[in-house]
Amino acid sequence: MDEIVNKVANSKLMVFDLEDYYPDDHVVVVDISQWLFGGFILKETEFREQLKNFDWSVYEDKYVALYCSEDAILPAWAYTLVTVHLAPYALKVIQGDLKAAVIDWYQDVLNKLDYTEYFDKPIILKGCSKKDVPNEVYALAIQYLMKVSKSIMFGEACSAVPLFKKK
Length: 167
Prior knowledge:
By secondary structure, this protein is α/β, with parallel strands linked by helices.
């Protein structure tokens, strides 16, 4: 009986898995409507008072996405004022939804990674995720990997789709 050999494990293929960098609980959303009268009317004095009395430390070391879940008409300074309170605690504050904040998180993480271990190697950009990695993040990742890799495939080793090959 012939021995079964795992050719994938013995190959030079490197797997780049974006789930390894998923923010988990590092990215949160803050709904401004919680500080609005009736959820949709901004009364400046009350708004400022609520922001002043809020415990912002719960957002320590987080990427925070600010949004409003109601169809409130808000002045531009409303988001800016909330940011003033968040900034001393949060790693970063953006105006947008959770997906936008996750993409922003990945932009920062991918920008800081050391890609030397992938230099001139064939790479599989792992595509099957258990976590909700936005498609936009794959487009960001491949731009970094193309600079260093020999080739890039997408998916899993058993069914990878070729995307890039260095000329």
